[in-house]
Amino acid sequence: MEPFANSNSSYTNILTPPDVSYDDNHTVVLIDASAQQIDDLAQWCGSSQKSYNIYLYRSDMNNLPWLESACGGADAILVNTVVNELSPVKDRLITTYSNSWYYGPKNFLTNTQSITGPEKYFQYWDSVK
Q1: Which of 45, 53, 63, 99 has the most CB atoms within 10 Å of its CB?
Q2: Angle at CA of residue 123, ends 61 and 52, nearest 5°
Q3: What is the pLDDT confidence band of residue 128, given thresholds at 50, 70 and 90?
Q4: Given this model, what pLDDT does residue 5 score?
């Protein structure tokens, strides 16, 4: 019988509260991404040669301790700056974490790591690592 997956194959874990992953995959927190962005990213990751843990968070998830923990262990934090009730938290993450990238309507003087969308980060990461 053939094994289901080769141990050298790439895969992506998409996680939401309260789930966590303890593997060595490149870990990214994605905050306030649109449904279309999440679908596009899932399709793109399916063809990537890299393995990822993607932690998804929206304000309606109401689990800030989980978000803080995920951000603390992340290789990158990608934040949509669309204004909503989570904006104060998103602003703090963008200005506090040096591994944060942002996209959307708002700009920050103290963080110049702006991208046009979450897929750009993953394309960049795949090309350089």
Answers
A1: 53
A2: 50
A3: confident
A4: 42
Q: How many CB atoms lie within 10 A of CB 106?
A: 16
pLDDT, position 4:
38
Residue 1 lies in a domain: no
pLDDT band at 129 (very low <50, low <70, confident <90, very high): low
For residue 41, what is the domain's CATH number? 3.40.50
Please count the residues of the chain.
129
Lookup: tokens for 90: 């998103």
Q: Which of 84, 39, 91, 41 is nearest to 60 (CA)?
A: 84
Separation between Cα atoms, residue 81 and residue 44, nearest integer Å: 22
More confidently predicted of 44 and 64: 64
Judged against a pLDDT cut of 90, whether residue 56 lies above it is answered with yes
Would residue 46 count as lying in a domain? Answer: yes
In 32-111 the beta strands, taken as DSSP E runs, fall at: 52-57, 76-80, 100-103
Query: Which residue in the block uniquely carries the two structure tokens 């897929």?
Result: 119
For residue 47, CA distances in Å to 9, 42, 80, 99 come to 11, 9, 24, 25
